[in-house]
Amino acid sequence: MNSAKQAYRALCESEPSIPVFSKAWWLDAAAGPENWDVVVVEQDGQIVASLPYVIKRVLGITLLTQPSLTQTLGPWLKPTSMKYMKLLSWQKEAMQALIDQLPPFSHYVQQWHYSHTNWLPFYWKGFSQTTRYTFVINDLSDLSKVYAGFSSAKRSEIRKAEKSIRIEYDIAAKDFYENHRASLKRQGRDICYSFALFQKLYDAAYRNDSGRTIAGYDGDGNLHAALFIVWDPGSAYGLVSTIDPRYRGSGAPSLLIREMIRHVAPFTKKFDFEGSMSEELARSYRQFNTQKQPYFLISKTPSKLYATAKFLRSVLRTA
């Protein structure tokens, strides 16, 4: 293991501002310890900037990206109280130093955490940006205020569910996964991640006190909905949700979200419903009095061969 990766592992153990998806333990579980690396910038012997990435090699093509079930990756910059003008200069130097250390690649693509609003140094190095959106409850410090902000429809769903739904925390990874797979199959869809991957993330999140499952059952033992939530000191994230379409009207999903917000509020600041460009999901998330939060998808494709292959795939998908 190289010295930068060792130092980054140590940093992840002590630095609360590093998002859960960028933690070394998360990347070990999501990608495998040998399949990710990191570049860092140090000042006075301390890491002040980092950029972890997953390495994929296919037919001589090198991709720098992020793992499945990992909402964001990208750069981390040490929090600082610098004045704005000096901060911008420092960010430019730090991010360009990160870029210069990246290994040669055919294609880079990562979704950045929404806390990073300055991608200009990457633009100057030839990268491109696409804006995406997630939906966030920005302050969990006053739960009565949070609940009062829910739409009347969501509050009605929760009251309905409270009468018939039994809440259970910490359902087994296998039970969660099989319910999600079966629920998607009933809608004519396939699950997009393996049980092996889910088990690794489940175990790692529990081991690091950074995640829990929650589920809602009726009186006959039918599982209506379940959530897998992960968190760091800055935010909780709705990583995976499963809703059985046979019980969609029970109100269980809204009840579980309310209960999970109650659970995470003492040790995190926000609740992120996870990025989605789906119109239906956006409509639902807005009813929890969320704020639409932009985040960046940053990419660069130096390989003309890979760029051509990407273009041809996009044409075939739309043909």
Q: Going by CATH, what is the homologous superfamily of the largest domain?
A: Gcn5-related N-acetyltransferase (GNAT)
Per the CATH scheme, the topology name of the largest domain is Aminopeptidase
Cα(first) to Cα(last) distance is 46 Å
Major sheet summary line: 12 strands, mixed
Query: Which structural class best describes the helix and strand composition?
Result: alpha+beta
Textual characterization of the structure:
By secondary structure, the chain is of the alpha+beta class. It folds into two domains: 3-132 and 295-318, Aminopeptidase (3-Layer(aba) Sandwich), CATH 3.40.630.30; 139-269, 3-Layer(aba) Sandwich (Aminopeptidase). 38% of the residues lie in helices and 26% in strands. It has helices at residues 3-14, 24-31, 84-101, 120-123, 143-148, 152-162, 173-186, 195-207, 252-264, 279-286, 304-318; strands spanning 36-43, 46-58, 61-65, 76-77, 107-111, 128-137, 166-169, 211-217, 223-231, 236-243, 271-272, 291-300. A hairpin with a 4-residue loop joins strand 9 and strand 10 (236-243). Helix 2 (24-31) runs antiparallel to helix 8 (195-207) and helix 6 crosses helix 9 (252-264). It is globular.
Q: Brief description of this entry?
A:
This protein is of the alpha+beta class and 319 residues long. It has helices spanning 3-14, 24-31, 84-101, 120-123, 143-148, 152-162, 173-186, 195-207, 252-264, 279-286, 304-318; strands at residues 36-43, 46-58, 61-65, 76-77, 107-111, 128-137, 166-169, 211-217, 223-231, 236-243, 271-272, 291-300.
